[in-house]
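Write out this protein's structure.
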Amino acid sequence: MSQGGGDGGGGRGRGRGFGHKGADSWAMPRRGGRGGFKAALSNPHGADLTKYMKRGAPKPDFKRSRAPEPTVDQIQADNLTALAKTYWAPHTSKNHVDYNPDVVEEIYKNDIKGPGFAIKRIMMLEFSQFLENYLWPNFKAETSTLAHIMSIIVIVNEKFRERVPAWTAFQYRPDEFSGFFHAVLKWTVAPPDQISILEQTKLLIFLDHCFTSMEVDLVRVQVQRLVSLPMWICLLDSRREAELKAIPKWKKYWKLLQKKDSKEDDETKDKLQFERRFLRNLINKYYTILYAIQEKECPEENVEYVERFLILIIDLEALLPTRRFFNTVLDDSHLVVRSSLAPLTRRPEGRLFAQLLEQVRFYTRFEINDQTGESLSEKDMMSLHYQRIGDLQRAVFVKYPELRKLSLATIASIEDRDQLVKYFQRLGRDTLYDICEYLHLVPPKGSAEDSENEYSQEFLAELVISRHEKRDSQLQELNEMPLYPTEEFIWDEGLVPGEYYQGENPLALPKLNLQFLTLHDYLLRNFKLFQLESTYEIRQDIEDVVSRLRPWRAEDDSIIFNGWARMALPLQAFTIVEVAKPNIGERQPSRVRADVSVHLSVRDQIKCEWENLRRHDVCFLLTIRPPQTATDINYFDIPASEYLETTGVMYVRGCEIEGMLDENGRVIEEFGSEPKPKFSSGDRTFRVRLDCNQYREDMDQTSQGAEDVYASFNVLMRRKPKENNFKAVLETIRELMNTTCVVPDWLHDIILGYGDPASAHYSNMPNNIPTLNFNDTFIDFQHLRESFPNYEVRVEEGVEPEKILPPFKVTFLDVVEKKKLESGKRDEPGDDKVSVPRVLTVKPFTQQNRGPYPKNVPKKNAVRFTPTQVEAIRAGTNPGLTMVVGPPGTGKTDVAVQIISNLYHNFPEQRTLIVTHSNQALNQLFEKIIALDVDERHLLRLGHGEEALETEKDFSRYGRVNYVLAKRLELLEEVSRLQKSLGVSGDVAYTCETARYFYLYQVLSRWEEYLSKVSGPNFYEKIEKEKLDDLFPFHVFFSNAPKPLFHGSSYKDYFECAMCCWRYISDIFTQLDEFWAFELLRSGLDRTRYLCVKEAKIIAMTCTHAALKRQELVQLGFKYDNILMEESAQILEIETFIPLLLQTPQDGMNRLKRWIMIGDHHQLPPVVKNMAFEKFSNMEQSLFTRFVRLGIPTIELDAQGRSRPSICSLYNWRYRALGNLPHVLNHPDYKVANSGFSFDYQLINVPDFNGIGESQPSPFFYQNLAEAEYVVAVYMYMRLIGFPAHKISILTTYNGQKALIRDVCAARCASNPIIGMPHKIATVDKYQGQQNDYILLSLVRTYNVGHLRDVRRLVVAMSRARLGLYVFARVSLFKNCFELQPAFNILMKRPLQLHLCPNELFPSKRMANVTAPNPVIVYDMPMMSKFVVDFYQDKVKQLKMIQARMAPKPGEIKPVLKTGATRQHPGDDDSDDEDKVVLKEIENELEKEDKMVSAENKAAAALEKVFVEPEEGMETEEKDE
């Protein structure tokens, strides 16, 4: 389920059907009966369904349609709803009955615990604001019951599952939280006779959420007490002494704690002891529940409890603040050893448990120093391992002669598990116990804790062995791992969960939390998640291809493909052509190549796609052998566990294209100069590279008698290039893990989530720059003064501020003073205690003229930046980390472009890398950079999106090389002209080299001679200014410049004119010097590399391109000093991190000086297609969002210039202080009303149509026919009153609705020349980053709010419109949603029926603040449809009359030969990557006139034929009923 507009966020898990027993005594009278929530859906589109479907699409089976959510009617009739209205619902607050604790008890008993914590009931309670308005306001720790606490816990857990803010309610009564948390802890370790295991599982989930919400102060204060140094009271005395002895600082703290404790009273001591021993007691409780599972009995709730417990342990171990002291306690409790010996690990139900236990084992041994938090190298880990084995050898040397051989053996000979088993498995319990006691692993022999059941011989042996065995190198495993997924991995639900994960089940997946242990941990978690996410996408692609190919087995056992697939072809032949020898020290071959042959008997377009497979594209080789029964199977909705068996997919192997072979068997070069070869047949052969690790594994299996995988392939599958970069990204991450990752020192701790969040802010950086050249940032001096409201602005004495003109250099005196204090240079004693005044001095400077021609005048910025934008520009120009939060329409791109321009002019020797999420954003950025004063030759655009740039210039690598070569010829032409003007003979303008000599010997000498005659000290007193003109040696060359060449009133002016001309000449030769390299380098590839590494100063690419090409860029020696990232909140964590490391460190240091991130975490996050990775692993969290959560300082832009202020109010509540720029108040577009509408925005309630609201033709493919028809009718109405189609976009929150609206538009509008298609029909997610004047928005859902509950999606939806926003939704559903209330409360202040003014035409003359007279009120969709049909017919009649008046008489018009293409309708071009809509012809259902139509009216009659009246079909259906 895609975040990117996919039908997913709103889906719910399969709830259990149940009857509701209780709460009757507290509820209002019941209306209507109720059972399990299953709505029997009839066909929601009426009889004629096919007209809304694409050709060839299977007709949906509505009986299979999942409807787990309760309908609105069921909710209304439900006792919970009645209770909510009586006690806590926000919309009935005036009539609420006083708090009654019995209500909480009854609801918990009958609606939460009774049905087994069924998600459906909990969702209803959470949605009704039970927590915010009833549970928490009335909570008192002293009188609280288990039911009250559990109700709060369950609803907070549900909020986390739904991914909505969970801690907001607690902020209103923070004083009660401490008592609540303590009560939670008590119940978590309460005995089983007081609380059930299922309830304690819910408490564990809540505790886990607490530990992963450390950024919330309220929560952090409570959980820190559980994991601090005092918890070491749980350790064995001997172990604690040994640990404290190793760290003297902690020993000192321990003594202080003991002193402090001795002064406390008994009650406080008991509370402290309880908190300190809590986690150890919890571990003991876990052992009890774990060992209750025996070989024969396996209670389901016990299994879920132990799984959830291990997830809690993993999360505690994976964060340094919680791990620091807890890891020692965990080690002392021997959790891993005890768990690994439990009977559950040998049962099939224990598979997930075993996977989680492996993660615990991994983190307990992680390569980190728990005390300092420093990462440990492989060498450090080895020395720790040697130290442990040395201690063991010393322990057995004296006492146990039978182990003398062990104590004297070399470490290498005894460190393997097999060797240790031989020594220790045969020892008796007493001997093992003594050894463990010596190593501080068990309590003293004979003490109360020494029990034979707890410390059995098997346990003690495993304890010694597992503690001393050599740990496998994670990195080595990673390097030997195949990067392509195989069939076992792809369809393993445990590793790659299915599409419908709802967040209720635990998973053995890594999580992306706030903090990471080390960079290695950071990369490893991202590697695993990225690999799993890409595997999930590959699974979807393979399943799609198999369903389209429809394979079946013939009687002779041959495989026949009944269908065809665009993305796959049957194989003709597969041959391994090369297996190279392994590299030294490796086992796998260094290279494996094969030839794959296919026959391209497909359409030319598809043939072209296959032939255009590029080098490094990834394809998949499949072996499909369907069983005999598979002839007619439906390939959809097969469970993953049965997929391989059902469809006969035997093997899946990945490969990488090296190139296509010509008919002579040679690889065709991609960028070769030779023309592409022609083929005589449809056969094509591709040379591919196979994964060497996978090949070795397969060959090992074959040698043991298994089938040869590589002799069995029968299908070659390719994937869409946009989605096919996973291998390059995984290789990049693996490569980063194998090299020493050098992140700049000032960023290292921040990326891991530790240290002072503000440490990398420019004001705290040691190299903060006191004087900045703001270049053309300021329009005038007044603008500068307004931009620094908190500073006193000073200018030089005697200068009138009003007369000074930009550009300005600004010196910040507070920065100067701060630097003095830091360096210890104080003017007077005590200066460091004086507060530094906030003063800045402004110094204007004159930019040197670059030449006498108009083209030499530099381009200037025209944007009047706000003070906040100026602060962002200042921060970005300074070294350090700059985070700019840019709400919709606040000029993020303008700020980014100005920062780039300022860096370019302030630091001409530095190079800036621009990274964005999408090509579209990069192109917008580039188009604005081109408009500023940046030399074209220093710009470079890498990747495949440069063709979308709306400029005639090509900024790609080859485009830039061509530009340089053309510019070189142009400059050499100028040199030739200069040579002629000076009368110098010979061919000096032949190459850059000859031009250089010409400059040195002919041009420079003349200039120096001229200077000697006209300049020097006090020359302006001795020489007349006219002499400067007379002696000037280049008059002939500048004869084509504007006249007079020398102008002004003084010697100084004339001298500046001469210098200006000289700068123009010297610039010609400077550029030719730079271009000299392009003469010496002959191949296009070398030239592009030189351009990338040396010539370009501003290099732009997408984050995907950075990940794909990292290795290539590093090898080239690519260097950069600054990174600017746009759309940072939309980029995956790892794709944000990789661009930091695209260069080789210099002397172990990263040269990066600035990192500017611009984004908006209040808008949609990165797209993650698998819900399990999005919800459970938090993969959708971008690095930008994580930094904001960590409290890193941000600059939030605070003035928007996109929407009308009224529309802005629908989303500006989400931001700190979002105001409006002057032009949205003063520009004529914003001052006039929207033609034809009473309001500039409106929420329109859409009731059911024929008793149907939302429907699901297939799971999670949500549609709503009433809203689709309503939206399209409003669009048609807008077109009929004159709105241009390109100014209207139709948005919706689900892909299913988008498809339905497209089909309705295709049927109603596309072939009608009066109406046509709208500019865009898209999902809200896909439309992020775009805008339009008028937005029609369909919210689809009628049973459940769905994924619009994510406020980020609401912000995007509300902020796309400039002038008009019309929202079509089920108001009764959305108005109750707590998260959406700020927006919906504003929307509901206006009427909920559409108000139209059909007499107004576009553009409107009515002012926006004038109420529309006598509006037409539309009550529902059928009324709107009927209104539009009548309105259309009136328009057609008007057109007939106009046509008749304007029509010329026969013979008056002379034929004109028309040339050129006809202009397309703006709505015809849809840039979505989807198949174009196939338009149907619609027959006219209006009555045909019997009488003959005159020639004048034929054109108007033709218009009439293209329109169909939607209501007629509906009416006839109703009559039939």
